[in-house]
Amino acid sequence: MTDTAHAGHLETATGLDNRKLAIWTFIGSECLFFATLISNYLVHKETWLTGPGPFPHDAWTSPAGKVFEPIIEIPLVTLGTALLLFSSLFVVLALANAQRGNRKGLLLWLGLTLLCGVFFVGMQVYEFTHFVHKGLTLKTNLFGGSFFVLTGFHGTHVTIGVIWLFTLWIEAFRGKIPPAKSLNLEIAALYWHFVDVVWVVIFPVVYLIK
Amino acid sequence: MATTALDQQRAHAATGHEPTGLWSWITTVDHKRIGILYGATAFTFFLMGGIEALLLRIQLGTPNNTFLSPETYNELFTMHGTTMIFLAIMPLSAAFFNFIIPLQIGARDVAFPRLNAFSYWVFLLGGLFLNASWLFGAAPDTGWFGYANLTSKQYSPGLHVDFWMLGLQTLGVASLAAAVNFFTTVLNMRAPGMKLMRMPIFTWMSFITQVLLLLAFPVITVALILLMFDRFFGTNFYVPSAGGDPLLWQHLFWIFGHPEVYILILPAFGIVSEILPVFARKPLFGYAAMVFSGIFIAFLGFGVWAHHMFATGMGPIADTYFSLATMLIAIPTGVKIFNWLGTVWGGSIQYKTPVYFALGFVAMFIIGGLSGVMHGSPPADLQQTDTYFVVAHFHYVMFGGSIFGLTAGAYYWWPKMFGRVLDEGLGKLHFWLMLIGFNLTFFPMHILGLNGMPRRVYTYPEGLGFEELNLLETVAAFVLAASFAVFLYNIIKTWRGPRNAPADPWNAATLEWAIPSPPQEWNFAEIPVVHGRDPLWEAKRERGGPLPEPPRVSGAGIHLPNPSYWPLVTALGLSAMMSGLMLIHHLGPWGIIAGGAILLFGVFNWAFEPAG
Amino acid sequence: MDAHATSAEHERSHPSVGVYVRIGLVLFVLTALEVGLYEFTYGGHAGPAGAAIQPFFVPLLLLLSAGKFALVAMFYMHLKQDHRLFTGVFVFPLIIATVLILGLVVLEAYHFAFARAG
Fold first, then answer.
1. CA distances (Å), A188 to each of A5, A28, B302, C39, C72, in order?
2. pTM of the model
3. Global ipTM
4. Using CB atoms, which residue from A5, A18, A52 is nearest to B108?
5. Residue B164 pLDDT > 90, yes or no?
């Protein structure tokens, strides 16, 4: 997984690894991506008042006269939030083990990270299905559209992270992540933490603020 | 086939001969070849965009003309704008980023050579995708800004907007990948001793451009995603009847769009700041001021987007803020202009073709900049908006600015890129035709605009006083086109001549001129050590005369990254996904899944391929 | 920003496992506080105190969220120990992103309150 012209041949001008600088650059760019999605959510939150209306926390009667129950399930999402936070802890523990060359510890903590990631995605799939059953789709109202797009793109990022970390788990299992290559995990971990902090913002903004 | 590429590489490492043939270009990860690919592709698109412009001009040459139907006219002006911005100016700048930045900072390649190839292939496929719309009779027709709700399913049910939206999305991926790459390259790949404040000014301006790309493109990405959901999946983000907001599109588009105009102009600033000192025989006047005014322009560029939207009625507070912020940008821009003047002031200017275009740039850009300040005032803007005055303004900055600057760069770096100096006589003919043609085409638009001629309307009636100037513009547009015919002829003529350019034909100051023209595959046989801002001039001063011609050496033993076709496979997967999205109502999710599978296959093979 | 002088060995002093676990616990507690705040303001346990908290609900929640964000970024993403360049590459976009969200919300709120409502 090295793609640097001079990896191992020359010092970089800043002394920082190319790939690590690149992932931070990418993360910086992603800040704007999620900021725009969150703006879209918040802007349309205004229009719930004038447009077809909300029902995340309160019941809503659609223009056609159908009554929708309040839809957001805070306990379920709190569980998902906790899973994601713990996965962040687990992945730094995995990294610490990788740097010390403890393969068993690496496999254990990385495995737990993956488990949390998979359960988070599972939680989201359950939540989306549940919403659709209750009558909320992309088309129902602007809450539906902006909610699904924002959390859906976050979920896509989590899924990509799961695939990435799973690949690294296989590599670690085959003994291909010695301490000298722990940077491979560090970079994936940075991405994973970023996806986590995005959720740290989404959770209160979407689920808790009425 | 993996072995073919690898074998080629090994043979190459043993003998030090550069590989040739089509396959070597498809698998290339060499920044110089990728730069040439960018340049050739972008110039082709530039000619296409130019032909589109000529067709528009023919239509507008006479009143009540029926040369083009209103529908075709819409398609042509949309594709002209989209092509020139995303497929011509941006990638022409990218050609220089690719070829020049690693040479200027004394590196053997960019930080991520395969990612660099990926950017090119995605750009090429995105450009082809966008232009494939012509074959389906469904070229985008909603303007390059694609205002909602012209783009809604209700008002544009065909494929027009789908091509535009997915094409731009693809091109955005290319730009973002390249921006991550060049941001890292400039920070990390500098030769020993090249501190940030010793970097050549072109590298500096390009670096700032990468920051703008990184921060502006995610916004248009999301805006296009929302549009895609509106069109394909029935959301109502931009649909006012369902509570959505077309104005949101304008905000998101211009939050991207205003930094985008600096993305288009900053590389040209850098090129001109590179050329003027070399031909004036003086170091750049106010280097630090140049750097910081560039940073200031970029930073302010994120806070002025709504000056494109005064006509939407944002209220006095927002109008005042955006107006003031806009006018503030005139200060760092003015600093740059005075520094260019200060650079040539009292210099012993050598009147070679690059300096003609560079000085032309300064003059034309001042005109475009001044009319920009005029739009910054909301009352004036309300009068000018949607008229030809605006068309005149942005052509003075985009053509008079960017294209003049990029052409200057082409003449300046041509010997380095191809080992041949372009013909001076033809170059000067190119310049005069371009300057005259350009001004006669676009200056009258100021007058027409103030007289009330609206943009984006396919014709105009007789008797409004628009006839003479429009006819003049149309004739002049052909003069402008002729100037590029001269350029093409110059390229062909030079190509047939001998490859005899010296390493340093202009007595220049920066590192790219220290190595043979064209550079060998590994650029620098020995990585240079830098002690100042003008390393070559310093070396010449120390030596008391010109440097000896650097020898072409055998590259045996110099480590280079392996060629790879996985970037192309990955790019194909991405394009297949976009095509699958477009056909989602015919294929269901299967097109996207197939494309995604190719993408994933490409990424995994890329990740596990030995990069060398 | 220029760091020619510094060597590559600046980033190996990551905090110990104990610190990671303690940060994890703090994150957990902060999340519990967030949900608790909701419960006592709007949720099932919202008593008479709920109405009193309401004006402070959003700022408090954002403060808690910002705290979690900062903890993850500083400790788990190692920004506290790592090269300052990484902090710059992250925080500069973050500032622009925040201003962008605020700007859009304000502009659109005005638009809906005055322009569109008539």
1. 20, 15, 30, 35, 15
2. 0.94
3. 0.94
4. A5
5. yes
